[in-house]
Every structure is written in C-alpha cells, then in structure tokens.
C-alpha cells in the first residue's frame, strides 16, 4: 500500500472545455508509437456518452463486497474513435478544385457529442468533465491483471504498468471502471496516464495541470495538510471523487459544477437554483454532492458580503506555487534514502514503466503510418 | 489341517492376484492407447514446417482440450461465450531424432483470427505446449495450468500477431509467473482454409538448459486459443497431461505405473458414492462443481470440468497432499476486504478468504487440508466421481 498519495482536484465550475490539457498530454505522451488513438487526458461533455463511448456502462470496479466486477474492452473504431487527418496539402492553393475532407470515414471520436448535453432551449445544460487516470487507492486495473504487472508506487501512489511484465491480455481495461487504461496494439501492451511522474519527481506538476488556462487543477499530497488539495478534499470537503460507487477510491477529485446559470420559467424569468439537476450530479459524485454544494454556495455568499473565505481564495487559484504543492524536496529525500547521489537522483524514475527489456522496439516518432495500416494481411494462412 | 488351509488361502489369493493383474494389464493397455502419444523416431532432420511430407507419415492421436474455467477472469464478453464453447479436438503427432523432438498439433478453427495492430479488442489464435522441467520416477506431476512452485514447466507459445512472429519460450511456476527465457525453439503455425484447420509444429532440442526429455515417457500438455472468442491468457482450452513415448530411451516401469495410476477412472470406483464423499467432506464449501455452486466465486479452483484436465493420479495427490501442488491464485487484489478498516487513503486490504495459500517460513502452503483420512475406497470413489466432471455449461 502506498505510504503517500498524490491527488489532483479539478474545479468543474471553471472548466471551459478548451482541451489545452488534452493537447498538453497528447504532445507530451500519446502522439506516437501506437498511442495515437489514446487520450490519457480527455475533456468530455456531460451529460453525454463520454470517452470512450459509454464508459460508465462498460463495467469494471468493485461490488459492495469488494469483489472485482466483469467489464468489457471498448472498440477502437466505435468507442474510442480513430484519429483522422484532413487533406490540407491537397487543398492548399487548390481551394477552387477541391474541398476540405477527412482522409478516412470517421464513425466516432472522443468529442463526437461535444456540447450536446441535455434539456431544451432555453434551459439546456451541460458541463465539461476533464478526466485522467484516477490513480485509485484500490485500482481496478491492478486487481484485474493476472500477471500482476500493474503496481502502485509506494512513494506517491501513482499507478503504473510494468511493461516487462505486461503481456497485453487487457483484463486491466475490463477492470478499470473509468476505462482510463488503454491497449497499445502496436507493442501489445497496456498503457495509461502516468501522472507525469518524470515531471513530478522534479517538482513540476503534470502537463495537463500546468497548462490549464482556466487554472482549474490543483496538485498535491493528500496527507500534506498545507496543500490546497488537502484543504479542498478534507478540510472543506467540496472536492469529490467521480463515481465513488465504482469502489476504487479515486484520487482525482472534482469540485462539482453547482454554480450554473438559472433556469428560465415560461415567461422567460430566471428561477431559483442552477440548471444542472442535482440528481445528475449525485449520480456522478455521490450523495456528498449536496453538502458540497451547500458549502460552496454559502462560502460564495460570504465572499459576496465582503467577508473572508479561504475556500473562495483557493478556488480563485491565485498562484501556481500554491496550487501545485509537490514538495520537491520529498523526492530528493526518497532518492537520498535509497542512497542515490547527484545525477543518480534520476534513477528513481520507474524504469519499469519507461522501458521494458521485452517490449518490442517500434519505429517512427509520429506514427502516422500506424493508422494507414491496411486490413490484416492473412500471413502464413492459405 | 493347518497346512491345507494355508495352501487353500494361498491358492485363492494367488488366483485373485492373477485376476487383478490381468485387469491392470487391460487398464495399462487402455492408458497406452488413449493417454500415450508414440513418438516416431526418424534419422533425418525434422522439419518445423507443418506441411512437410514427414508429418504425413507420422501417426497421430486425438487429444481433447477443455475450456479453462478453474479460474475466472474478468472479461465480460469472453465469459459470456464460455458456456457455449465446444470441446477442442486436436490431432497430435510426435517425431524425434538423436538431437531434437518435434510436436505437431492440428485443430479445427473456422474463424482464423489475428491480433491486428489497429484494434483494441481483437485477439490472436494461438497454441502452446508445455513440458515439466523435471519428471520421472519419484517426481510428481505439475499442475497442468502452467505448473506450480514445486514443479516449474517450460512453455512454448505461438500466436498469430500482425507485424511480428509472436513466438516465445517461458518458464512458468503457475498463474502470473510466466518468465520469458532465451532457449532454442522453432515454431511454425499455418492455417488451411480448405479444411479450416490450424497446424503448428514445435521443435526443440531433446535436452536444454532447463529440461531433458531423453526419457521413455515424457509428460506434455496442450493449450489452444481461439482469438475470435476473446481468448488469451487463461481464457483458453487445455488438455490434461499426456505422455510421449520415446522408444529409443528406457521406459521407467515405475514412472509408467505412477502416471497411469487409477486409469481409467471409470473402473476405479463408484462415482455415485464419490459424489456423496465430496459433499460429506465439505468440498463444496470452497469449490464449485457439478450442481454444487454455492461456494463464492474465486474461493478455490472451480472443479466443474476437472475430469477433463486432471489425471487420476494428479487428483489423488491433490487430495492427499495439497501442499505438493500449491497453485497461485489469480492476483489477490481481485477481492478487497470491505469489512476491514481502510488505510488513510481509503485503500482496503485484500480479502484473505480468497487467498489459496498461506506462506509459512517462506514456503507456500495450500489452504486446503490434506484429506488423507479418507478410506481407500472413498478416495477411489471420489476420484472416479471427479473424473466424470467434464462440463462447463454452468459457468457464469
């Protein structure tokens, strides 16, 4: 079991769905070598099908007795969506002869239902839900692996795949109720969000959090009482795990979007309360959401009256230095404890993730070719 | 007077022994017929190509492979298909020369599937054979599902994966312990569209760093994967231990006697009483089998088709001395103890109830107690009963 636990809090009241986090993650980790289709970080519209499609209904997680539940493995084309390109080169200088079109016939993609939401004008509603791996305390992926190839780092609770042990069986994907572990078909191994541990170990927050223009993400250790993460989760209890009923105890927490525009009545007059139904938020964030909403709204009122509110000050997100309390000396202490000096400090990066002796080496940096692959050649079969 | 009685007794008992030994001979004949694969000695180099002429000249035998349901994995789609699976019948042939041994496996699969490089949920057809690293007089049989801690096995695996020739050699000591090794092996696997059959040939040196097959009787077991049925890893069909007879090497009579013990199980005892014995001894508290399905899923290996994958002698040993074949259960994190206090990050400890073994002085001990108190007849009846269990229709 992990001795410490890193956590992230995302304030959904401030997420504008700009996908900067998605791009930050993609360019850092998933634009190559079989990971092209993966979004370790995605931002989906809720209510909606999410990414991968209908992930909430795809099984995994634990029942109330603590036993792993069966799950399914989403389909690349119909559930994840295969990335496609446009014919920009062809179009350039030939705008009169040709039209902009994708190079394949896409049937699904990670934001296929972006901004659809639910409800009718003028009371339609939706919000954005950014998702990364939850680095759960009871990870479904880790429990499912018959090879025991997934591990939770003792020093910070980050959940990683040991690529040497992984044989590409994909039970982890069925076991993760958030479908945040992916199969890399090119190397036949599972891969997932690594909480940017190489950055974390040097005191930098994960790329998605650092790049977030809305400054909605807070990162820190859950047992560090001075961290804003601790204050949001434990002191004010306004940050809640997503789908706590899945039983994996996620370590990514959300400040629920309780501050939404009012509904309008038949005469077009604004009514009391927000548009997003509390029943829906309760489904996503559990019954605690009501109490969290109460606290958030009352602290907001306090601030409006000109009184002090530590909670509101935190959520305004004045400074990165306070939002990301990574306690970088902590990792140096871990390195020192392990007897690592100077550049050896870099050794504490988990080589188990970074390279596998048995991992087939793959070519290319920007795996464009990967998606031009023709249907499976029936080699050796006649 | 006394002398006469003695002679009479002697006479009767010797008659009795003659009867028994004749029955034993018949049993042994049946064992040789159904459980033993005759290796054909050849002088020339053995081709790894399944279509090579040599394989038309080698006589084969049928081997039955049963769906693996002893442990349950968590892929919903794969699990839904298990009750509908059919028994896999493989044609197996063995050839050997001074240096090498080659095993030929042919089986029907109307849906040839290849694991593609652009899909997340496509799985490969595959085939595997295993040999115990140590076998022979005085050495008990390994657990057929990739060995156990006391009995490492060498596993040869071939899968149809797009873009590379996925063939590997492993050492294994039970579930989750496959460790890839660098040992010489030639494996070829081909599909015949006309007959709808896969054929594979595994060729290896008779003797390697890890195992020496230069013996009269060599245990071997088979597994095949049907990618179309989401099969990979433990989702597969497997045979029980079979034995290759290599005529050029000395057949150890004691070892033959040992591996053929109790064969055929149908003549070993009364399955009806065996079922009573199983129920009276509380087997159903941990194991699921037959119509006894009350044990919690995952508490112990499911025995519903144990008769298909376990030899009578293996059953005897696991009943009398479970510690000899301690089987790793799947990842212990599959079951959390929700009644225990979670740690400060709300992580629950594992539920020890589902752990199949305890570790005592660094050695794994089976949680199953030895049932050595059973009378000999009860034991035989029980084995006769367990050997009739060959169903996977109740799998959920």
Indicate the proportion of strand residues of chain B: 15-25%
Which geometry of chain B do the CA atoms define?
globular
Mean pLDDT of chain A: 88
CATH architecture verdict of the largest domain in chain B: Sandwich
Largest interface: A-B, 64 and 53 residues
Q: How large is the count of helical segments of chain A? A: 14
The level-1 CATH class of the largest domain in chain B: Mainly Beta
Order of helices and strands of chain A: EHEHHEHEEHEEHHEHEEEEHHHHEHH
Beta strands of chain B, count: 15
Overall residue-averaged pLDDT value of chain B = 93
Structural class of chain B: alpha+beta
Percent in strands of chain A? 5-15%
Content-based structural category of chain A: alpha+beta
CATH topology of chain A: Alpha-Beta Plaits
Any idea of the CATH topology of the largest domain in chain B?
Answer: Immunoglobulin-like
Which assembly state applies to the chains in this document?
A: heterodimer
Order of strands, main sheet of chain B, comes to 1-3-2-12-11-13
Q: In the residues of chain A, how many domains can be counted?
A: 1
Structure description:
The complex is a heterodimer of chains A (382) and B (396). Chain A has 14 helices and 13 strands. Chain A is α+β, with helices and mostly antiparallel strands and 382 residues long. Chain A has one domain: Alpha-Beta Plaits, CATH 3.30.70. The longest helix of chain A has 17 residues, at 288-304. The radius of gyration of chain A is 22 Å and the shape is globular. Mean pLDDT of chain A is 88; it is low at 355-382. Chain B has 396 residues and is an alpha+beta fold. Chain B has two domains: 25-259, Immunoglobulin-like (Sandwich), CATH 2.60.40.1190; 265-388, Cytochrome Bc1 Complex, Chain D, domain 2, CATH 1.10.760. Chain B is built from eight helices and 15 strands. Chain B has helices at residues 2-34, 54-57, 76-81, 253-259, 271-280, 306-309, 312-320, 376-388, and strands spanning 36-41, 61-67, 88-96, 100-108, 126-132, 153-161, 164-172, 179-180, 186-192, 197-205, 217-225, 237-238, 242-245, 357-360, 363-366. The longest helix of chain B has 33 residues, at 2-34. Chain B starts with a helix and ends in an 8-residue tail after the last helix. Mean pLDDT of chain B is 93; it is low at 1-11.
């Amino acid at each position: 079991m992990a001795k410490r636990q890193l956590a992230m809090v995302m304030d959904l009241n401030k997420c504008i769905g700009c996908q900067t986090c998605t791009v930050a993650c993609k360019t850092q980790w998933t634009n190559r070598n079989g990971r092209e289709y993966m979004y370790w970080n995605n931002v989906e519209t809720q209510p909606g099908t999410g990414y991968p499609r209908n992930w909430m209904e795809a099984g995994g997680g634990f029942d109330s007795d603590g036993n792993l539940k069966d799950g399914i493995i989403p389909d690349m084309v119909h559930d994840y969506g295969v990335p496609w390109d446009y014919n920009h080169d062809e179009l350039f200088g030939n705008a009169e002869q040709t039209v902009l079109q994708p190079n394949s016939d896409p049937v699904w993609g990670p934001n296929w239902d972006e901004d659809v939401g639910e409800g009718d004008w003028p009371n339609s509603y939706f919000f954005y839900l950014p998702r990364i791996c939850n680095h759960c305390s009871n990870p479904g992926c880790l429990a499912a692996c018959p090879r025991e190839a997934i591990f939770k780092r003792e020093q910070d609770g980050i959940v990683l795949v040991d690529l040497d042990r992984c044989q590409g069986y994909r039970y982890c994907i069925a076991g993760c109720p958030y479908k945040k572990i992916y199969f890399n078909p090119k190397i036949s191994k599972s891969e997932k969000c690594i909480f940017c541990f190489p950055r974390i170990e040097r005191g930098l927050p994960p790329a998605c959090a650092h790049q977030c223009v809305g400054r909605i993400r807070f990162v820190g250790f859950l047992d560090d009482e001075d961290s804003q993460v601790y204050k949001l989760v434990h002191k004010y209890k306004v940050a809640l795990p997503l789908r706590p009923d899945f039983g994996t105890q996620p370590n990514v927490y959300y400040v629920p979007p309780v501050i939404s525009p009012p509904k309008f009545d038949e005469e077009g007059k604004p009514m009391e309360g927000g548009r997003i139904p509390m029943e829906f938020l309760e489904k996503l964030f559990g019954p605690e959401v009501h109490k969290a909403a109460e606290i958030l709204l009352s602290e907001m009122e306090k601030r409006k009256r000109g009184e002090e509110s530590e909670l509101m000050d935190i959520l305004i997100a004045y400074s990165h230095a306070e939002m990301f309390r990574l306690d970088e000396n902590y990792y140096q202490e871990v390195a020192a404890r392990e007897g690592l000096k100077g550049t050896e400090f870099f050794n504490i990066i988990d080589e188990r993730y970074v390279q596998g002796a048995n991992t087939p080496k793959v070519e290319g940096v920007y795996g464009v070719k990967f998606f031009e692959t023709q249907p499976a050649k029936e080699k050796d079969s006649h | 007077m006394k002398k006469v009685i003695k002679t009479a007794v002697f006479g009767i008992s010797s008659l009795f022994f003659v009867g028994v030994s004749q029955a034993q001979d018949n049993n042994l004949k049946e064992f040789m017929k159904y459980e033993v694969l005759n290796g054909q000695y050849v002088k020339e180099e053995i081709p790894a190509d399944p279509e090579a002429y040599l394989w038309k000249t080698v006589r084969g035998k049928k081997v039955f492979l049963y769906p693996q349901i002893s442990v349950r994995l968590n892929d919903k789609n794969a699990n839904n298909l298990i009750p509908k699976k059919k028994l896999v019948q493989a044609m197996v042939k063995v050839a050997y020369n001074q240096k090498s041994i080659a095993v030929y496996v042919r089986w029907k699969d109307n849906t040839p599937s290849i694991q593609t490089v652009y899909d997340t949920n496509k799985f490969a057809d595959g085939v595997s054979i295993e040999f115990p690293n140590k076998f022979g007089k005085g050495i008990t049989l390994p657990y057929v599902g990739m060995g156990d801690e006391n009995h490492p096995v060498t596993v040869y695996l071939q899968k149809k994966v797009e873009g590379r020739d996925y063939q590997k050699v492993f050492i294994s000591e039970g579930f989750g312990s496959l460790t890839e090794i660098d040992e010489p092996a030639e494996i070829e696997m081909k599909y015949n569209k006309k007959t709808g059959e896969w054929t594979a040939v595994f060729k290896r040196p008779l003797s390697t760093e890890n195992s020496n097959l230069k013996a009269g009787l060599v245990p071997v077991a088979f597994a095949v994967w049907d990618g179309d049925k989401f099969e990979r890893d433990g989702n597969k069909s497997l045979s029980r231990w079979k034995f290759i007879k290599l005529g050029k090497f000395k057949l150890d009579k004691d070892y033959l006697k040992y591996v053929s013990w109790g064969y055929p199980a149908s003549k070993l005892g009364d399955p009806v009483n065996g079922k009573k014995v199983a129920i009276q001894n509380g087997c159903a508290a941990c194991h699921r089998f037959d119509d006894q399905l009350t044990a919690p899923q995952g508490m112990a290996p499911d025995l519903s088709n144990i008769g298909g994958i376990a030899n009578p002698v293996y059953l005897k040993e696991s009943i009398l001395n479970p510690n000899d074949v301690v089987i790793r259960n799947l990842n212990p994190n599959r079951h959390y103890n929700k009644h225990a206090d979670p740690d400060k990050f709300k992580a629950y400890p594992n539920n020890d109830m589902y752990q199949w073994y305890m570790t005592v002085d660094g050695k794994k001990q089976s949680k199953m107690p030895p049932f050595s108190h059973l009378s000999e007849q009860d034991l035989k009846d029980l084995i006769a009963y367990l050997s009739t269990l060959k169903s996977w229709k109740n799998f959920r």
